[in-house]
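Running this now, will post back.
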Amino acid sequence: MRIAQSIGLALSLALFAFKSVYAVSPNEPIKPLPLALNLNPDKVALGEQLFNDKRLSHDNTIACVSCHDLQKGGTDRLPRSFGINNAKGDINTPTVFNSGFNFRQFWDGRAASLEEQIDGPVHNPKEMGSHWQEVIGKLKKDAAYPKAFKALYSDGINAKNIKDAIATFERSLITPNARFDQYLRGDETALTDEEKQGYALFKQYGCVACHQGVNIGGNMYQVFGALNNYFERRGNITKADLGRFNVTGKKYDRHKFKVPSLRNVALTAPYFHDGTADTLEKAVDVMAKYQLGRKIPRRKKRLIIKFLKTLTGTYQGKELK
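Update: finished.
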C-alpha cells in the first residue's frame, strides 16, 4: 500500500511540475529561459571586470560595455557603434543579453562560440583596434589581475583565459522571468487577452518559423528579403549586407543572416543588421513585407507588438528598461 501511495504521489508531483513548466502545451515553439545557470561565480566576476575594462582597446577608450550597455538592453541603441578614434562600425551591434543561447555569434555567424567572438572586436580596427599581446601586457601591469587570474587559471593571464572569463560573464547575462515566460510556466494571468491574441497572430502569420526556441531566434540563418528584394528597394548595398556570403563565398548565402533573438526586443531599437528600423512598428512592417510577403492590418500589428513587449525580462532580479 505504501509503495503504491508513494508511486501515486511521485506521479502527481511529476504532473504538477510538468504543468507548471508548460501553461498551454509542451509543444509550444517558444520555451522559457532558465531562471539561473550554473556558472563559476569567480569567473563571472573576473569576466565582468574585463568586460568593463577599456584597456582591451588600443587607446584605452573602448570597453565591451561601450557597445553592449546593460542599461540599454545590452546594446548602444545606435544604428552603428563607434570604436577607437571615433571610427564608425559597419553593422548594427546585437544585444549581449542571452547571447550564450545563440547557435553562432555575429550577424553572419562567423564565430562558433562566445570565446571565438571576442577576437573580433579586439582586433577590429574600427572597434578596439588592439591585439592580445598588447592587452596581456597592460593587464599584467595591473596590481590585481595577475592574482585574480592565477586563482582561477594555472597558467595565469593569456588570451585563452581572458576570453574564457569574458565569455563566462556573457553567459551569465540571461534575462529570465519575462511575463511571457511566466505565462509559459503556467501563470495564465501573466498576459492580457490582447497579448495572448498577439502571440496567436505571431504564430499564425509564420513569424515563429524563424523566431522560436528558448531565445526566440538565434538558432538559424535566413535570407533577409526571402519573399521581396529588401536590398534592391533600399539600395546602397555594402559588404556587410552580403551577410553569410562573406564567410562562405557561396551564392545562396548572399544576404543571409543569423536570425536575431527577440528577447527584450522592445528595448533594442534600431533593428536589423543595418539599423534602419527605429521602431517596432517599422520593424514588423518590414518583416511582413519582405519575409512574409504580405501586409499585416494595423489592428493585428498592434496586437503582435503588444505580445513582443511581453518578452522583456529581468536582469539580477530587476526588470529591464
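Residues 179-319 form a domain with the Cytochrome Bc1 Complex; Chain D, domain 2 fold (CATH 1.10.760.10). More later if anyone needs it.
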